[in-house]
Amino acid sequence: MLNAPHDAGREALLAAAAAFFDQGHFVRELARRVAIRSTSQDAAGAPELRRYLVQEIGPTLGALGFDWQLHDNPVPAGGPLLVARRIEHEALPTVLMYGHGDVVRGQDAAWTQGQGPWQLAAEGERLYGRGSADNKGQHSINLAALALLLRLRGRLGFNVKWLFETSEETGSPGLAAFCAAQRALLAADVLIASDGPRLSRERATVFLGSRGVANFTLELALRDSGHHSGNWGGLLRNPATVLASAIACLVDARGVIRVPALRPPPVPANVRRALAGLVFGGDPGDPAVDPDWGEPGLTPAERVIAWNTLEVLALSAGSPAQPMNAIPPAAKAWMHMRFVVGTDVTRIGEAVREHLAAHGLADVQVGTAEVMHATRLDPDDAWVRFTLASIERSTGAAPVLLPNLGGSLPNDVFADILGLPTVWIPHSYAGCRQHAPDEHLLAPVAREALQIMCGLFWDLAEQAETLPRRG
To answer: Using alpha carbons only, what angle is made at residue 421 by residues 462 and 26, rounded to the nearest 5 degrees?
Structure first.
């Protein structure tokens, strides 16, 4: 337990964070950032990606005593990156922080709330705007918390490096290559970052990695054109029927994966303990969870966090908009697998082909794409214990610990390439409508998150000498 004067300083910092939010300072900062149309999914947004870093993020960090530099992406498909450093003393622990300044397309005409994607609008407890939740609002909270700590203490009490990319919404091209080439520049003791949703809006959440993702296609093309079903039905193989059988061969009608090579190892005991009692869904607007879907013997929390899922994203055969009485010439399915640590995805295409061939479906073509790998920090890691204790101290309630996110992030770059323990503290919630019209950040969650991060940074400074360091 810290002594009374230090406790008073911490409480003063949390009060300053609340005042900063209540007086509208945070909203004004976020509005300025939302107004920059930094979409990475449209080539016309390329100048805005650079502007976001050069005119917004760089000067903000520079005012906090960071040295910063813009870097070109090592691959043509990627946007620029920014690295900033504030090194107070080599003997202090170093935190690497991450954010992405790019957003998805605005989808301007489809917005029904707020004032469109590029003007932050407060309506009730919601702050509408593109990037408000993903990721401008989240990294703005962390930037503001550092600024408030500096204002109160005059120093951080630890070292910080920031890495901003502008291609996350297109799969982070070049991020892995950049980090591999800049290991010394980005060397740190831990990654602390914010993205993704809380388990629920009411409960602060920590996650330690993410499930990986692998997309692949199934395709069967048998002819150049369709043929009348009355004349040829019963004589010609129907590629759509064959493809339906191929999908059922991979994943059954309850969502259970039938390919042994695509199934994960058993759920570790400490992961199972961390997930015990957690309930997913239940917030307004959430879909109802199907209790009988997925791997039997697992809880819903274990299915979405600690197990693999194989989904059909899309199917194509014939002309769905105007069906004809004809056997289609070809069929295609787009498949999508989320997977956890311990799953061997180095030969995913080969494994699917072998399984289909063993079931008489060898002529179904399997096409694979790039894989984003799964990561999961040990829930018993010292950085995890530190973070959980700090958040509980700030909020008065134990946060939810998710061993990994159900979705995917480029966390493998930080965990595998940079070799860092990775701790994520999300500041959004599942109903935020990220990637869709009417994206929003919840004001009460953002206010609490600002206090959480201020408390975390205070505790990091106070306990700097005892926190684990990399050799």
So the answer is: 60
Q: 6 falls in which pLDDT band (50, 70, 90)?
A: low
Overall average pLDDT of the 169-174 stretch: 94
Strand ranges inside 8-65, DSSP E: none
Query: Average pLDDT for residues 280-309, to the nearest whole number?
Result: 91
Determine the angle formed by the axes of helices 443-462 and 136-153, rounding to 10 degrees. Answer: 40
Q: What is the dihedral of CA 240, 241, 246, 250, to 10 degrees?
A: 100
Coil, helix or strand for 423? strand
d(CA 196, CA 193) in angstroms, rounded, equals 10
Q: Which CATH architecture has domain 212-280+292-372?
A: 2-Layer Sandwich (3.30)
- What is the pTM (predicted TM-score) of this model? 0.90
Share of the chain above pLDDT 90, in %: 92
Right CATH for 4-210+375-466 from 3.50.50.60, 2.115.10.20, 3.40.630.10, 3.40.640.10: 3.40.630.10
The DSSP string of 63-104 is TTT-EEEEE--SSTTS--EEEEEE-S-TTS-EEEEEEE--B-
Give the residue range(s) of CATH 3.40.630.10 domains in the chain.
4-210+375-466
* Distance of alpha carbon 45 from alpha carbon 104, whole angstroms: 10
**Mind listing the pLDDT tens digit for each residue in 74-108?**
999 999 999 999 999 999 999 999 999 999 999 99
Q: Report the interhelical angle of 25-34 vs 4-22 (nearest 10°).
A: 60
Q: What residue spans in the chain does CATH classification 3.30.70.360 cover?
A: 212-280+292-372
Indicate if the pLDDT at residue 347 is higher than 70. Answer: yes
Which pLDDT does position 117 carry in this prediction?
Answer: 98
Beta strands at 94-100 and 159-165: parallel, antiparallel or unpaired:
parallel
Within a 10 A sphere around the Cβ of 114, how many other Cβ atoms? 21
How far, in Å, CA of 102 to CA of 60, rounded? 17
Residue 280 has pLDDT above 90, yes or no: no
Please determine, for residue 4, whether its predicted confidence score (pLDDT) is greater than 90: no
